[in-house]
Amino acid sequence: MKTQTERYHAELYSKLGDLKHDFRNNNLINYIVSLIEKKSVLDIGCGSGNLLNRLTKENKNVQGIEPNEELLKLAQRMN
After folding, report:
1. Strands 61-65, 40-44: parallel, antiparallel or unpaired by DSSP?
2. Residue 68 in contact with residue 43, Cβ under 8 Å?
3. Which of 6, 21, 31, 32 is 20 to 30 A from 57 in CA distance terms?
4. Count of alpha carbons within 13 Å of 18, Cβ hemisphere only?
5. Distance (Å, rounded) from C-alpha 65 to C-alpha 52?
């Protein structure tokens, strides 16, 4: 059974749409990517998977954990 919080977050993320042109999001992701020196990354609470998608493009070995099933479904659709 989905909780109200899980439904809220899934709806919020789905309304964000394509974040590729959101300079704040891009700046944050660029900053995070610049800090990662290792080859493997575990993103706990990966949400819609935007950071993992970018890290994959940077040739990182990525794994994401997302407990919210609705966000996990959204990540699978978006990426």
Report:
1. parallel
2. no
3. 6
4. 2
5. 10
Q: Are 63 and 37 in contact (CB under 8 A)?
A: no
- Between the CA of residue 40 and those of 18, 29, 34, 43, what are the distances in Å? 26, 16, 14, 10
Q: Where are the beta strands (DSSP E) in 1-79?
A: 40-44, 61-65
* Claim: this prediction has a pTM higher than 0.90: no
The residue among 12, 4, 10, 13 whose CA lies nearest residue 69 is 10
Q: What digits encode the pLDDT tens for the residues 25-66?
A: 778 888 999 999 999 999 999 988 889 989 999 999 999 999
- Nearest to residue 76, comparing CAs of 14, 5, 27, 12? 14
d(CA 20, CA 64): 20
Alpha carbons 45 and 67: distance in angstroms, whole number:
7
